[in-house]
């Protein structure tokens, strides 16, 4: 994704989950609070060489746990179509 599309009006207020290995950020995701007890998970990314090792799953679990702690009743997933197999 082009950098210009990655930063939006929600970025500063979103909760970000980051995964590190040896002081290198290898994965990320964010939780954006929406109105009415809803939140959106999106901007999930893991560096190619660290995929299929559970990093993305751990990031997703952390974001879901955070949403629960915040009392979120409904989660919306924002994802690229190519990533759908991961979320299934």
Topology:
Elements: H1 3-6, E1 15-21, E2 24-33, E3 38-46, H2 55-69, E4 74-77, H3 84-87
Parallel strand pairs: 3-4
Antiparallel strand pairs: 1-2, 2-3
Description:
The protein has 88 residues and is an alpha+beta fold. The chain has one domain: Aminopeptidase, CATH 3.40.630.30. It contains three helices and four strands, in the order H-E-E-E-H-E-H. Strands 1-2-3-4 form a four-stranded mixed sheet, covered by helices on one side. A hairpin with a 2-residue loop joins strand 1 (15-21) and strand 2. The longest helix is centred in the C-terminal third of the chain and has 15 residues, at 55-69. The radius of gyration is 13 Å and the shape is globular. The protein starts with a helix and ends with a helix.
- Give start-end ranges of low-pLDDT stretches: none
The biggest beta sheet reads:
4 strands, mixed
Q: Between the first and last Cα atoms, what is the distance in angstroms?
A: 22 Å
Proportion of β residues? 25-35%
Any idea what the shape is?
globular
Which CATH class applies here? Alpha Beta
Topology as H/E string? HEEEHEH
What percentage of residues falls in helices of 4 or more residues?
25-40%
Mean pLDDT: 91
- Order the strands across the largest sheet as they lie in space: 1-2-3-4
Global Rg: 13 Å
- In CATH terms, what is the architecture? 3-Layer(aba) Sandwich
Helix/strand/pairing class, anyone? alpha+beta
Quaternary state of the chains? single chain
Provide the number of structural domains: 1
The number of distinct helices, counting runs of at least 4 residues, comes to: 3
CATH topology: Aminopeptidase
β-strand number: 4
CATH superfamily: Gcn5-related N-acetyltransferase (GNAT)
């Amino acid at each position: 994704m082009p950098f210009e599309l990655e930063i939006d009006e929600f970025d500063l207020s979103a909760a970000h989950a980051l995964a590190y290995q040896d002081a290198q950020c290898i994965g990320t995701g964010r939780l954006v609070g929406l109105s009415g007890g809803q939140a959106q998970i999106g901007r999930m990314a893991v560096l190619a060489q660290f995929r299929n090792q559970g990093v993305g799953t751990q990031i997703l679990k952390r974001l879901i746990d955070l949403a629960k702690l915040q009392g979120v009743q409904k989660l919306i997933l924002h994802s690229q179509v190519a990533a759908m197999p991961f979320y299934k």
